[in-house]
């Protein structure tokens, strides 16, 4: 098991109450609940940032293909009209 590190955060009283309630309901420690929440938040945001960085790299590549805005609009309108 990995050794843990301590951090201190300030939260609104309402957030603290929600944390307490979830910890009690799940019979987990508040530390466990907070770590799970942070892991989920970090996973989503790391995934999103990587996606943005990959898309920017693709857009900046010499092989990038661009489609005129009006072509896209016309294509969507044609699909909607069907």
Radius of gyration: 23 Å
* Shape by Cα distribution: elongated
Order of helices and strands: HHH
Rounded mean pLDDT score: 96
Q: What can be said about the biggest beta sheet?
A: none
**Distance between the amino and carboxyl termini:** 58 Å
Number of helices: 3
Q: Which structural category fits the helices and strands?
A: mainly alpha
Helical proportion, percent range: over 70%
Q: β content, as a range?
A: under 5%
Quaternary organisation: single chain
Regions with pLDDT < 50 over 5+ consecutive residues?
none
Strand count: 0
What does this structure look like?
- The model has no long low-confidence stretch (mean pLDDT 96).
- It is built from 3 helices and no strands.
- 71% of the residues lie in helices and 0% in strands.
- The longest helix is centred in the middle third of the chain and has 31 residues, at 30-60.
